[in-house]
Amino acid sequence: MLEKIKEVMAEAINVDPADVVPEARLAEDLDIDSLAAVELSLELEQEFDIRIEDEELAELKTVQDILDLIEKKQNN
């Protein structure tokens, strides 16, 4: 799943896939601002067929948080 997230992030918000590691912080390490976060969430929703609520989006701080959220949503 991490590889797919790397692809989505590279396409949606122009992040270097090599920088997308579980411990990477979205704002500090990947320079993802609020607009980019919204774009990313839309792409993730489409790619993984899930819905990310605004409150959930605000809680995402690292790539691992994204992985955990997607996994949780796919198992429900």
Automatic annotation (TrEMBL):
Transmembrane segments: none annotated. It is found in: Cytoplasm. Its main location: cytoplasm. The modification O-(pantetheine 4'-phosphoryl)serine is found at residue 34. One of its GO terms (biological process) is lipid A biosynthetic process. PROSITE patterns: CARRIER (PS50075). Pathway: Lipid metabolism; fatty acid biosynthesis. 4'-phosphopantetheine is transferred from CoA to a specific serine of apo-ACP by AcpS. This modification is essential for activity because fatty acids are bound in thioester linkage to the sulfhydryl of the prosthetic group. Residues 1-74 form the Carrier domain. Coiled coil: none annotated. One of its GO terms (cellular component) is cytosol. It comes from the Bacteria. Keywords: Cytoplasm, Fatty acid biosynthesis, Fatty acid metabolism, Lipid biosynthesis, Lipid metabolism, Phosphopantetheine, Phosphoprotein. GO terms for molecular function: acyl binding; acyl carrier activity. Pfam families: PP-binding. InterPro entries: ACP, ACP-like_sf, PP-bd_ACP. Carrier of the growing fatty acid chain in fatty acid biosynthesis. Belongs to the acyl carrier protein (ACP) family. This is Acyl carrier protein. It comes from Catenisphaera adipataccumulans.
